[in-house]
Every structure is written in C-alpha cells, then in structure tokens.
Design brief:
alpha+beta, 3 helices, about 30% strand
C-alpha cells in the first residue's frame, strides 16, 4: 500500500514522502492516527501544493529577515557609562540593555537572540551578532563611551 506521510514516522520516513508500507500497517495504524494518507492522485496534488506553499513562505521569511538585518545594522547603539582609569566599566552592558536601545529605535528584538557570551565590561566599539529567523543574523554596532 502506498501512503503519503503527514508526519515523521520512525523507521518509515519523513513528512511529505510517499512510501510503500504493509496494507494492515497503513490501514490500521498510520491512516487512523493521521500520520499518513492514502497515495491517491488528489492527495498527491494536495501534497505538491502544500510543498510549494511551504517553499514560498520560507522564501518570504528569508527576505523579511534579510531586510530586518539590514535595518538593524544601521541602528547605532550608544551607551554612556562610568568607567575606571583603565577603561573598565563600573558595571556592564548586557543583552537586555542592547535590546532596550533597539526597542526605542523601533525594533522588537528578544534579548535571548542577542549573542553576547559575556556582558561588555570595557569602553570601546563592539560588534554584536543578533540571530534572526531563517538562519539570518545581523551585526549590531555597540559603542560604549565614558561618562563625564
């Protein structure tokens, strides 16, 4: 019996694959549980249509993420903090601080998407990566200046 898998099934196949399974396995297990549908001409056309829609959505999400990345890279993040004589801050600039600056600039970015291994603890210019959807990332420029 040929079926089209609607979900990943261990040892059988992945979503969208057309596989050949035993009649009883398909009729009594896969189809009633919604894991597969019979491989009819109508279901094949429906599967192809859904795959085209999924690809189209993925392309649109990538384009939106790329546009957002370009806009984020143009946003400067300036911080003025108290620092010691060697340029060490009396605190730190964290991902939450960067997220707040981006929010005031009109970009809603979750602080967990800002990839800071350690908080910034010295004066200077830094480039901080921000993860975006569709495996896209933006490099945000962060400048920390001393307080007068």
């Amino acid at each position: 019996m040929k079926v089209i898998l609607m979900r990943d099934v261990d040892h059988v196949g992945e979503v969208g694959e057309m596989v050949d399974v035993a009649d009883g396995y398909g009729r009594n297990f896969l189809i009633p549980r919604g894991l597969a549908v019979a491989a009819t001409a109508k279901n094949k056309r429906q599967l192809e249509h859904e795959q085209r829609l999924r690809e189209h959505r993925l392309v649109r999400v990538r384009q939106d993420a790329q546009t957002l990345a370009e806009k984020l890279q143009a946003v400067p993040c300036h911080f003025v903090r108290k620092a010691g004589e060697e340029g060490k801050l009396f605190g730190a600039v964290t991902a939450m601080d960067i997220a707040e600056v981006l929010k005031t600039a009109g970009f809603e970015v979750d602080r967990r998407r800002i990839q800071l291994d350690q908080p910034l603890k010295s004066l200077g210019d830094f480039t901080v990566p921000v993860r975006l959807p569709a495996e896209t990332s933006a490099m945000v420029k962060v400048t920390i200046a001393p307080a007068e």
